[in-house]
Write a structure and sequence with these properties.
single chain, alpha/beta, seven-stranded mixed beta sheet
Length: 302
């Protein structure tokens, strides 16, 4: 019998971001933007700005980008040029290492999964056009996209709504089958972006953070804050102040989340530690693919 970490409940569902996590699209986004920036003698998009765009809904990301870029053209002109480039390059994207096997193995383990991506339908279709077998792992009704009408305006990542909605798409089927609903703390979120990690943490879920190497450089020395979901401050500081003032005895603020063990950082999705999350995979021994777990491939656990 595979035993989970006794400090946490067994994982009963997994929720996935897409860009930069399942598919190598983040560098394509950067390439397309840099083409346009160069045309108007603007510098390449720095990772300090790129990090603020990752995981956010398109309109919100656009506001941040244009505030930095200061391009001498109307936004519709930029959007048209960007769309044309994305239509050319998005279909060339590829799955990132470890992704196909991870999805296949979760299916073997009978772990339900859902997609929670900030990509809108048009871009989602462009990115997945040649990866239909891979994305068939996500039933259509378990794909929550960035332009989903059920997500309120301004409630994209880092707000928790998209992950709570993704869980609900799974629980709808669980209830229909007469099963016991899956709780947020029984979910494992897979993310590459800092806002996405915060969204998962705010949803009350465990998180695996698999960042782009450049994002990791940017947040070097701040990994604990990212894993706690407090790298951007938010109201965790308010929670801490209330606890310190004696208004509340406990809180879910910055201090409470640092080093709480609910999130880990990995360098790749290869060699997933199923056993460590209480996931039983028929016919698998040693806890991971080929007997290797995340602990062997560079886990940063808090």
């Amino acid at each position: 019998m595979i035993m989970a970490n006794p400090e946490f409940p067994k994982v009963r569902a997994c929720l996935f971001d897409m860009d930069g996590l399942l598919l190598d699209t983040e560098d394509i986004y950067t390439k397309c933007n840099n083409f346009i920036l160069a045309e108007y003698d603007r510098p390449n998009l720095p990772w300090s700005i790129k990090a603020q765009l990752q995981g956010r809904p398109g309109p919100e990301a656009a506001e941040i980008f244009h505030a930095w870029a200061q391009l001498p053209i109307p936004r519709p002109t930029f959007t048209a040029a960007q769309s044309a480039l994305q239509s050319q390059y998005f279909p060339l994207c590829q799955p990132l290492p470890g992704v196909p096997l991870l999805l296949k193995t979760l299916k073997r383990a009978n772990i339900p999964i859902a997609l929670a991506t900030s990509s809108h339908r048009r871009n989602f279709d462009l990115k997945t056009i040649y990866h239909q077998p891979l994305f068939s792992a996500f039933p259509e009704d378990r794909r929550v996209l960035g332009d989903d009408s059920r997500i309120g305006k301004g409630r994209g990542k880092p707000c928790p709504d998209i992950y709570l909605l993704a869980l609900e798409t799974i629980n709808r089927d669980v209830r229909a089958a007469g099963g016991v609903e899956i709780l947020p703390e029984e979910c494992l979120v897979f993310e590459d972006s800092v806002p996405g990690v915060e969204a998962g943490r705010r949803a009350g879920m465990r998180v695996v953070w698999c960042p782009h190497p450049e994002i990791l450089k940017l947040y070097l020395g701040r990994e604990r804050e990212v894993l706690a979901g407090v790298a951007h401050g938010y109201e965790w500081e308010v929670e801490d102040a209330l606890v310190d003032a004696g208004v509340r005895k406990t809180g879910v603020g910055r201090k409470a989340r640092l080093d709480d063990g609910w999130a880990v950082m990995v360098g790749s999705l290869e060699g997933f530690d199923y056993e460590g999350y209480g996931i039983e995979v028929p016919g698998m021994f040693g806890g991971g693919e080929g007997g290797l777990g995340f602990g062997v491939t560079g886990e940063f656990r808090l």
